[in-house]
Amino acid sequence: MSEKKRILAVDDEPDVLLIIKTALLSEGYDVRTAPGAEEALAQIQEFRPHLVLLDMMMPRMSGFDALHAIREIPEFKSLPVIMLTGLSDKDNIKKALNMGVEYYMMKPFEFHDLISKVKIAISDSEKSSPS
Questions:
Q1: What is the set of domains in the chain, with CATH numbers?
Q2: Residues in the chain with pLDDT < 50?
Q3: Which long-range contacts (CB under 8 A, 24 or more apart) does 36-45 make?
Q4: pLDDT tens digits, one per residue of 80-90
Q5: Which of 8, 27, 80, 104 could bond to 125 as cystine, CB 3.0-4.6 Å?
Q6: What is the rounded CA–CA span in Å between residue 126 and residue 131?
């Protein structure tokens, strides 16, 4: 990787954040974590991530609400987001896809699946962004 890619992981479960951070740091990514959507929104402007991993179900502010708030920021309208969910609820997955999420992962997930999905999402984003 020429430029170290920045990833913001948002989840209310500390164990999940630790797994994500450990996996992505081992691949050379610059990773920040946030225990909730409010904290993520506070960090996003300064950190300027290349990708957000966003838990769908969190207390106070859901992943859907956070995604909506992220999309309201002009420079993050096309920021790739991988929605994480412990639910196999097709309606919620469809809602996420309709909100512009192109990728989602079911919890629990394996390190290699997470890394693979992150690489695909960043690669797809780089291909679609103007040079």
A1: 6-126 (3.40.50.2300)
A2: 1, 131
A3: 36/10, 36/12, 36/60, 36/61, 37/10, 37/61, 37/62, 37/63, 37/65, 37/66, 37/69, 39/10, 40/8, 40/10, 40/66, 41/66, 41/69, 41/70, 43/8, 44/8, 44/70, 44/73, 44/76, 45/73
A4: 999 998 877 78
A5: 80
A6: 9
- Find the distance separating the first CA and the last CA of the chain, reported in whole Å: 17
Put the strands of the sheet holding 81-85 in their side by side order.
30-34, 6-10, 51-55, 81-85, 103-106
Calculate what percentage of the chain has a pLDDT beyond 70: 96
Query: In the block, which residue shows the tokens 């909506």?
Result: 68
- Tally of CB atoms within 10 A around 70: 23
Residue type, 121: A
Q: Which residues contact 15 (CB under 8 A, 6 or more apart)?
A: none
The answer to whether 56 touches 63, Cβ cutoff 8 Å, is: yes
Residues 6+ away with beta carbon under 8 Å from 36:
10, 12, 58, 59, 60, 61
**pTM of the entire predicted model:** 0.92
